[in-house]
Amino acid sequence: MSTLFTPDQVVTGRRRFHIFMSFNVLAFSILTGNVISVFALELGVNNTYIGLLQSFMHLSMVFLIVGRALMQRMSYVRVFAVGWLIRYVFASLLLLIPLVPGRDDAAGIAGVIILVAMGGFHVFRGVGLAGQVPIVGGLASGADRGRFLSVNSVLANGIALIGGLVIALLLGRDAPLQRFIYFFAFAILCGYVSVFQVWKLPEPRRSAEATFASFLSDIRSVASDVRLRRFLTYLVFFALAMSVSAAFLVVISKRVFGLPDNFTILLVAIGNFGAVASGLLNRRLIDRLGPKPLVVFYQLTALIVTLFIVAVVARATGPGHAIMVVAFFFSAASQSGLFVAGQAYYFSLYAEQKHANLGLLYSLVNGVVGTVASYSGGVLLDAFEARYALPDAIRRLFLILAAVTTVALVLAWSLPLEGQRQSRMRRRLRALLIVLRRGASRGGASRGGASRGE
Hints:
By secondary structure, the protein is mostly helical.
């Protein structure tokens, strides 16, 4: 039972949040990720630029601390809504790119506009997220916490999946830059609609924990909590590997295999399909088995995907379309699954009253590591490319990621279970494998007939 909302507020709040998320996901999937990266690559940017551009997504987590300071003077909903409004004002700068005069440095000016627009977009995303964290924390409380988070994941990735398919169909094989601008304009409109929905969310009851002093106090308490300390150590390695991998899959698609624009955008939809699959798996199993077995399962999947990329890029030949479909599907499935299962594990370690403070700590660690890793990955890839052919440069980068992911897997396995022994962890993993095998065997015999609309 939530102590931040009444039962009626939980019901209406979840519904409003799902409406907000539907519009926001459409906007976010167009303005970030592969779409903006492909647009930038068409302007002729290098790997360091792509790394910097992708690092902004993680930088937003760092600016949660600014939003937390504003929450001392403003309501949670107001901080959330104002941050979201300003971020889409910054995104609107993208619509100025067609006005850049046709000079020799036009591509450079457009590149600067993208950095300013996306930098502001993600900075104020972080400010707004500070208000979102306690709202979602209150809505996600109770015995069905894992189910609520999984439904959010399935809904968000399902909408992004449909949006990616539509964009790929409308974009074309070698789209003119003006066509990208039309998509950006549509995304910005959806963003403003999502801001309107934020204002309708219920305001959580204030907690005595929601002060900066209590935030510092909770951080000090983490130092003596083995469970949290181990999880945050794991989070560092997880964020390091995942942020670099996600940033440069699009570079492999465009520059190694030479795939067209529309197929590279279609890969976003393929990735979201993988994320939906992991969300459905989480929804079925996370409250039954607990989050830790799923964290280990998805981390192992991430390692296999990384080694797969190392193997196929080394030759830089073969069916590029099929290779990238496999890479994007399982990469997104493992990343989305790890995010949901890892968050469920983390939130289960402490009382709801501390969600705002320690949830902020989670985001700060994730943000700082992801920002540094994404940018450093671009610099490192450019350094490798200066000495080796691009496929070999990427192979070396992903070999490093494979080593980091291996460390993350070991750390995930060593995460403590509350009052439980490691043998129970093995039983849970065996139960997970049994469920997966049964699901696969039933799928062929009763395809479509066993669905209950979940």
